[in-house]
Amino acid sequence: MANSVPERHERGSEIILSDRLSNLSDDLLRHILSFLPTKDAIATSLLSKRWMSLWIGLPILHFDDSSFRSSESFFQFVECALKFFPNFNHIQIFRLKGSGIKFGPRPDKIISWVKEVINKLNELQVDELELCFTSWSSIRLASSIFNCSTLKVLRLKDVKVDTLSSVNLPSLKVLHLESVMFLEFRCLVMLLAGCPLLEELKLSSFALYYYNQKTNGIYSLEHYLVSSNNPSSSFLVTLKKFCVDQFKGLGLRRYSDEHERSFRNPKKVLSHSQICTWERATIRILKLNGVKVTTPSFIHLPSLEVLHLSNVIFPNIQGVYNLLCGCPLLQDLSLKYCSAILIDGRSIVPIKEGSLRNLVSAHVYRYPFTLEERLKNLVLADVYRYPFTLRSLSNVTALRIDTIGFSSPLDIPKFYNLTHMEIRCCPGVSGTTLLECLRNCPKLETLKIDEFNSKEPSGNNVPQCVSSNLKEFHLGNYRGLHNEFELARFIMEEARVLKIISIRTNSKANSEQEIMLKRLSSCNISSANCRLLFNSIPKI
Known about the structure:
Layout (H helix, E strand, L loop, with lengths): L6 E5 L2 E5 L7 H8 L4 H6 L16 E5 L6 H12 L10 E6 L8 H13 L1 H4 L3 E6 L6 E2 L11 E5 L2 E2 L12 E5 L2 E2 L2 H9 L6 E5 L4 E4 L4 E4 H7 L13 E5 L22 E2 L15 E5 L1 E2 L13 E5 L2 E2 L2 H9 L6 E5 L2 E2 L8 E2 L10 E5 L3 E2 L9 E5 L13 E4 L18 E4 L7 H9 L6 E4 L14 H6 L2 E4 L6 H13 L5 E6 L4 H12 L9 E6 L4
Parallel strand pairs: 3-4, 4-5, 5-7, 6-8, 7-9, 8-10, 9-11, 11-14, 14-16, 15-17, 16-18, 18-20, 19-21, 20-23, 22-24, 23-25, 25-26, 26-27, 27-28, 28-29, 29-30, 30-31
Antiparallel strand pairs: 1-2, 12-13
């Protein structure tokens, strides 16, 4: 940015301003303009004669109605810009985004633009196409959009797909479908089968059930695919990343208002045997949110490195065991609010030793399995009502945890590498147990406690991390109670290298906040460089 400021040169009494930006080549200027929205890029044509036509050669066209004050100005702008299409030689990226809520739907205009772009996809050698709308569900895409030899990335949102006669996307590697309505599931199968090089597939707010008016029945995507003559082995053989998010956006689209009740539950059946087969050797990233899965007895995902599951329903806890044991290279694991049906009264399944030996990051909330072995490669853990023992987490450098494991000092192992620890709540934990925990974290630099309801720490033996290493201390939901104040005072007086002590309160009364702050400010702070931050956090 500093290089673009004009330099001042003096020649006698004359001052000459040299514009470094204008000295750049046209290709380099176009590259800079490509990072701007098309509206802003075109605005640069007013700078000088040289800039008048630079935007025409941009490899990216990005139209977004959110930056316009009125619908009429947006429509006029896009119409004028598209008139320059014959002057374009190659468009790498074309994006068209419309809210439809702010201006009201104009499907006739939008459809004409989409058709014009689609008709020129191959001619302009478009690499990436993104059509994202909201509340414009009446926009239908012709089948020609799915026949483009150059397209590598396709993102669609809130559109309908007509019956497909053919699909040919030989170069497509990334496919994102959000709230996309296929009139027939057969068309979805055709689409996936027509992408031989597909590496990333993302489905959001996707209708995995559909209503057949002829038979008056409701069918799942799995039902159609299993009964289809096109087996899954014939497509998606190159898939590396697969994501399903049924909780994103406005929810599932419905094919019949008459059967609206059938679609109210967002947890729909996801086909495991066809789309997301559990024996994909190529998949490296798998993310599922708000779905119900079926897991076979044998799962083999030898390349999987990232597994994120949220609000996923398993048929039984054995499926959880099979999944975690079938990912030998797993490095990033996130399991949040998942559930499974019990088998023979068992609520917990022990994971086979060595199954998660490569795990680096773990975010696990309420999950029915246990793990006893020490995870030597684990550096980041965020666990709530966790299946891991503290011993298995003892190698981490960052830890966010509840207080179940701190019920006894005997349960706390040494955390030799831990530098950052967050504790959600300390109910019923004695001050002695908390100090014992800190003694077992000699390198701890940051300590955050969301809520402290326990007895204040006592004793003359100050933990090494508090006196020598602790740099930040954060205490949340502060109410000014005696035990909370004593904990804050203890940290301020004993932490010699402390830089920040942050206290957050939910109190809205200014008088209460002033009393709390005045009392905290009266404490002696042993660190000369420490700052006391007192923030009022409103209740949600």
